């Protein structure tokens, strides 16, 4: 199994999708009802996605990148119903094209994704509302992983960034990395699936929203032998995903992004400051174009 790598420039039951197939982007913006969000509380907000960042609500940054991407035809935002009005105000200020759905978040992350995917038969890209540094190039790289014209298109792909690339933009040594025999990688919280059939891979998250924090979910996904090999760092990232693919019956492919900023989410006040500085630097050199179109927003 090969690794798909994006430079700084830029078993298959579903058969892949063709480049140019319309894409729905699902943005997970809900909160954990079991605990308060310190960042949201610090800014006096009910939800982290509404926290101000570089002059706009946090979620506006990821939504604008998605809404302006030519492959994105549909957006679905998963969030608690009490945040609908705040999100509606954000969306009314954004340029873009296509249709946006506000979908009530479910207690379980899998059910939230399934609800946001309902009624869509094509490929899906899933990310989080705190991924303010999302770029069009990253979306392009994820779509390319599903390309039906490729030798072996992915059913599921997920983005990772190598440690050196992440430290190049954020030297914070507290960042978490997943160690493999070839390198250490940080998750970028960007996932694509080729269609509804491939969504069954999300079942490894059922029972909670934090996959790595539940050993039984890890065991169910990887199996005990594979888990031991991962713990011993005896396999590379690509080899590990080949094993996961065999267990799930789906082709799961890592997309390695050389833009380390893609692994930085806004989780706390420290990362908020880091991301805000990176955003201001980015927009000063390459401001986003206006689309001249408005989004159509619906509520479910």
From TrEMBL:
It holds the Pfam family NTP_transf_3. Residues 41-165 form the MobA-like NTP transferase domain. GO terms for molecular function: nucleotidyltransferase activity. The keyword Transferase applies. Keywords: Magnesium, Transferase. This is NTP transferase domain-containing protein.
